[in-house]
Amino acid sequence: MKSLEDKMARIEILLSDEEKSNLKLYCQSKGMTASHMLRTLINQSSPDMAFIANFQEVKTNKITVRLTSYNLQVLAKKAKAEGYVSQTNWATACIMSQLHQEPVLSADETQALRESNRQLAAIGRNLNQITKVLNIEFRDSDKITKEMIQLLEDKLTQHKQKVNALLTKNCQRWSINDESFSS
Is 30 in contact with 39 (CB distance < 8 Å)? Predict the structure, then answer.
């Protein structure tokens, strides 16, 4: 039986010294060989034709990722800055966002949305009180001023802007097209 290396063919690529140097630096920063990087590019650019004979599917719910020291430091910095409790949580959220093309929220963002819901519930109660005054106790409707309604509208607008900013930030973090979240 032929080994995988026996099935491989060599290919020559003409590069300038600068291109070769850039390729070498890029591959080192990604922790891969030039051959591996080129195979990956070929497979990504033509997935229907990808050579996947050596694809190894995991048998557990655990995947090991190897990073250069530099990339591990960058990951740690990003994870901390974005409110994740560990690098693993950040990496998992990154993978989930790419798989599902949806925002994956950090604990801080989840808390912000919970606060958002609390504020919306309070605004809803205020609207119910206004509706009651207008529909049932119309004699007291002069107690409700245009300014009060404008204040509620302003609070709703501010609130929508906060939630939209949070979702936009999250979508940009994971490079998700966020057109469906803005309104």
Answer: no
